[in-house]
Amino acid sequence: MTDPIPGVRITRDADLRGLNTFGVDVRAAWLVEVDDASRLADVFAIEPVAGSTPLVLGGGSNVLFVGAPGDPVLRLTGTAIDVLADDGDTVQLRVDAGVEWHTLVMRAIEEGLSGLENLALIPGTVGAAPIQNIGAYGVEVRELIDAVHAFEPATGRHVRMSNTDCAFAYRDSVFKHAPSRYIVTAVEFRLRRGGAPNLGYAGIADELAARGIESPTVRDVADAVIAIRRRKLPDPAVIGNAGSFFKNPIVPADVADTLLAANPRLPVFAAGDGLRKLSAAWLIDNASLRGYRDGDAGVSPGHALVLVNHGGASGADLLRVARHVAATVLNRFGVALEPEPRLIGATWAQ
Ligand code: EPU
Asked: Domain 240-344: which topology?
């Protein structure tokens, strides 16, 4: 097939196994890959995208295909990283949605820029990062984002949204609430040259101490994060998974207090006014579900928050395990769990 627009590739009946980190066997009627996001208005004017609500995929690391997508799958494949401003202390970068997240983190570290190191080794692309406000080891990406560039199919406009416009919250943003309204095309980051590393998360300080590092550099912190992640979290290239499958539940403080009285070891964190965040991994683990398996779908033996595909699990198999986990935790602790990845072809509420 000839390319209807330069830099746009359209594939019919595309295999999505390599485009979702669960490794679920699913096909898309159409896969549309776009190098230059400034051409999106043209892409939305042609078949098969015109009149559709495409499913935008980044690295496919936050999606569970329970069924095949009904609309075309769209991927942005631009990988530019541009310096917008550099005053010696602070550097402003504009990064295309298609850049691999970890590639950006490593590039920043090589350039002596700090801020992203605690987010090393998170799978996925830069375009997906603001959607669920990725976070790990004491840092959320919203702290580093100046603005998000997006295309709005309904109006055909490209918009630049400020950090405030993005309405970031724990694993949440305006993009997550209106998944078809915006297509994230690039992200602007504000990073510091030689800023102090963020060591607030106990696991990092422990890892650095174990390595005998007293004055850690940004690279030391990234190395510590990478080591912790490799130890705890299964590698999607080896065993299919989408990182944490459930969000850590946020509950009223009195609910947390009651749970804590009965379960003194339950990790509980402050989460704003009168609210507490509970460790979903602990709840699942203490409902004896770590390592649980139903056919090829299961809970990771290494981390209770991660669902894994041991080989041939379908999306429906994984969803069945997720529902079993949530029902067991609800029954045992009275706490409702919500999935973090986007479900395609199913809804969580039954
Ligand atoms: N825990 C258990 N059993 C387990 C694993 C953990 O009881 O199998 C308990 C431990 O007490 C541990 C606590 O849970 O101290 C917290 O575990 P961890 O430090 O791994 O953090 P998490 O709350 O489970 C969150 C993010 C991760 C992120 C880590 C580190 C969410 C949904 N998940 O997990 O993000 O890497 O913190 O900051 O907020 C992801 O979103 O895909 C992801 C991996």
From this structure: 3.90.78
Q: How confident is the model at residue 227 (pLDDT cuts 50, 70, 90)?
A: very high
> How confident is residue 73, by pLDDT bands cut at 50, 70 and 90?
very high
* DSSP H/E element including 41: helix 40-43
Would the CATH topology of 8-76 be identical to that of 81-193?
A: no
Residues with CB under 6 A from ligand 1: 136-137, 203, 232-233, 243-244, 247-248, 267, 279, 281-282, 285, 290, 303-305, 340
CA Rg value for the chain: 21
pLDDT band at 202 (very low <50, low <70, confident <90, very high): confident
What is the whole-number distance in angstroms between the Cα of residue 162 and the centre of ligand 1? 29
> Which residue of the set 117, 188, 207, 340 is catalytic?
340
- Return the residue whose CA atom lies nearest to atom 18 of ligand 1: 281
Check: CB of residue 77 under 8 Å from CB of residue 96. Answer: no
**Residue 197 pLDDT class (50, 70, 90 cuts):** confident
Which residues 6+ apart lie within 8 Å of 221 measured at CB?
Answer: 117, 118, 197, 198, 199, 204, 208
- The predicted model gives 203-226 an average pLDDT of 95
| Structural domain boundaries in the chain | 8-76, 81-193, 240-344
Q: For 8-76, CATH number?
A: 3.30.43.10
pLDDT tens digits along 267-308: 999 998 999 999 999 999 999 999 999 999 999 999 999 999
Torsion of CA 95, 22, 120, 232, to 10 degrees: 170
Q: If pLDDT is split at 50, 70 and 90, which confidence band does 185 have? A: very high
Probe target for ligand 1 pocket from 265, 282, 333, with the most ligand atoms within 8 Å of CB: 282
For residues 189 and 113, give the distance between their C-alpha atoms in angstroms, rounded to a whole number: 11
**Which residue from 129, 196, 156, 132 is spatially nearest to 50, judged by alpha carbons?**
156
Please name the CATH architecture into which domain 81-193 falls: 2-Layer Sandwich (3.30)
State how far the alpha carbon of 49 is from the alpha carbons of 34, 35, 42, in Å. Answer: 12, 16, 10
Q: How many angstroms does the Cα of residue 7 sit away from the middle of ligand 1?
A: 40
